Amino acid sequence: MSESGFSYESMLEDAYSRLPAKPKSTGRFEVPRPKVEVAGKRTIILNFKQIAEAMNRGEGELANYLVRELGTAPSFEGDNLILQGRFNQQSIERAINVYIRDYVICPVCRRPDTVLVKEKRFLFLVCQACGARSSVRPY
Ligand SMILES: [Zn+2]
Predict the structure, then answer these.
(1) Running DSSP on this structure, what letter comes out for residue 115?
(2) Taking the C-alpha atoms of 132, 34, 76 and 96 in order, what is their torsion angle to the nearest 10 degrees?
(3) Which of 17, 48, 76, 98 is 20 to 30 A from 108 in CA distance terms?
(4) From ligand 1's centre to the CA of 56, what distance in Å?
């Protein structure tokens, strides 16, 4: 091996040190747009699992809300949520956006790092970023 004048290790260190410093959390809150397919009398949300995960909600937790808003019954097939009836992209997106506004985003600090906590007949939005505990309408 010839002497090249620099070591591979120091090159690596140099490369890493030039990477921009990133904050630990991903920062941006991005919920994928629902992929909606109508099949006969059913509506399928193909990426439902990813949507629920992006907002840190259980699939059942989010589905319960949607079926109440849309007035239908749900079933699950893999990552998909199946709704009885025909619903267009717009109405599903609208319901998801209202859910995010009312049940995901902390009203105090506007961060999405929250969980829903049920206590008796009450529902609270508990923020893991600022610690706020906000009463929300149970669904
Ligand atoms: Zn907060």
Answers:
(1) E
(2) 30
(3) 48
(4) 15
**Residue 98 structure tokens:** 């209202």
How far is ligand 1, taken at its centre, from the CA of residue 92, in Å? 26
Least confident interval from 8-22, 24-38, 60-74, 110-124:
8-22
- Ion ligand 1 nearby residues (CB, 5 A): 106, 108-109, 127, 129-130, 132
Cα 104 from Cα 65, distance rounded (Å): 12
User: What's the predicted TM-score (pTM) here?
Assistant: 0.78
Q: How many angstroms separate the alpha carbon of residue 119 from the centre of ligand 1?
A: 19
- SS3 per-residue string spanning 30-68: CCCCCCEEEECCEEEECCHHHHHHHCCCCHHHHHHHHHH
Helices (H), the chain: 8-17, 48-54, 59-70, 89-103
